[in-house]
Please model this.
Amino acid sequence: MGYVREVCDYLARTSPAQAEFYQAAQEVLMSLRPLMEKYPKYQEHKIIERIVEPERQILFRVNWTDDKGEIHINKGYRIEFNSALGPYKGGLRFHPSVNAGVIKFLGFEQIFKNSLTGLQIGGGKGGSDFDPKGKSDNEIMRFCQAFMSELYRHIGATTDVPAGDIGVGGREIGYLFGMYKKLANSYEGVLTGKSLLWGGSLARTEATGYGAVYFAKYMLEDRGETLKGKRCVVSGSGNVSIYTIEKLYQLGALPITCSDSNGMIYDEDGIDLALLKELKETKRVRLNEYTKSRPNAKYTPVSGYKEGTNGVWSIPCFAAFPSATQNELNAQDAKTLLANGCICVSEGANMPSTPEAVDIFVENKIAYGPGKAANAGGVATSQLEMQQNASMTNWTFEEVDAKLAQIMKNIYTNASATAAEFGDPTNLVMGANIAGFRKVADAMIEQGLV
Ligand code: NDP
Ligand code: 2IT
Model:
């Protein structure tokens, strides 16, 4: 069908230089072809043309002063992509690589991910090109306050509910919430990922990583396999990676790698989780510090990776958990993983595999869980936080974790049943894209042209 090319050409012409957004859009649109052929209503209502266009894009200036009093200017973004299923929901990313195309790709993915959770949440994303690395606590606070001094007028517990993403964790959510409360004069569940002292949900911190491992578990169960006793490789060393590693241990697997943007750790005895948490959550230092306490582990800087590859994916494993960032796993990495016997890839990060790598996983029919399905546990648990805030109750860790596991199971069942319905049962890329899209599209049709 020519419409995929037409829409992609239209996007390239009207929103130039947004490579990550075209990549995300193209993958979804390609997957939708069997659905579009079977149900002409989506074309009649121009759902594709409408869904690729954000409902609202907010771009703003953020000025702040560093500890020396010097003035800095950053770009702020909040892209409110689609509200057919509920208030806009999605994280904020603070990283120097952030631009409109990155936020649009993340917001676009979020629409379908949020739909897959089965909960009432629309899709949005935001952030800034601010670089939190090396900043003092006071600088982080001043930046978050400056960022919120504009964002507060656009968000609210029933309109748009941001959360964390790369560079935004519990500390940043605290400063953002404090400023929102002051400016809006309202104490409400306007952000998720809050502290347990003031409205946060137990298990939200753990949810994305735990969810990605649950997703792998359900994919493997269907194939008569388990993670028990299996070597697993994980990239990144932030929120998603740490709790992926924690859940892997709980299920009896052996996570042997982690990484940051400077290099990777290979610890064949298993990553020392307590040490990793101390380095990354408490001390906030670089990963090369790990070998000071674990001399038997091996640290390889990025310059030591084989050219054009990510070193993490060269370590033989049974299952891989990309948990750092977009396009961190390319075709060569995918081939290496398969050649070394990897049969499962569950994406904690958003769009970590390049399109060529995705094709290799799908063609080889491995248990491949694309990000919008496998990492949906984070946003799902954010919605559980919203539910608790709205009803002024608090659930136990076990209650939230059990709901998370059930949601991940439902997502897997829905994606695989939809893949089977459209003739390719192991293709969870198609299954997740069609299942996520179909619900949003039907809601848009029912709600009229708004
Ligand atoms: P964190 O900021 O906690 O950690 C990010 C990790 O990824 C760090 O180890 C970081 O290394 C590494 N990283 C980031 N950017 C790059 C890059 N350009 N190149 C190499 N390494 C990089 O973020 P999260 O763990 O929250 O997020 C990780 C991924 O998971 C992202 O794709 C995010 O969108 C996705 N995600 C997060 C959810 C959440 O609830 N937090 C929910 C669903 C998906 P360094 O410190 O060197 O930058
Ligand atoms: O990509 C994501 O799903 C997130 N960063 C979490 C979003 C959320 O609202 O919890």
Residues 92 and 243 are 19 Å apart (CA to CA). The pocket of NDP (ligand 1) is lined by residues 95, 97, 164-167, 169, 208, 236-240, 260-262, 323-325, 348-350, 375, 378 (CB under 6 Å).
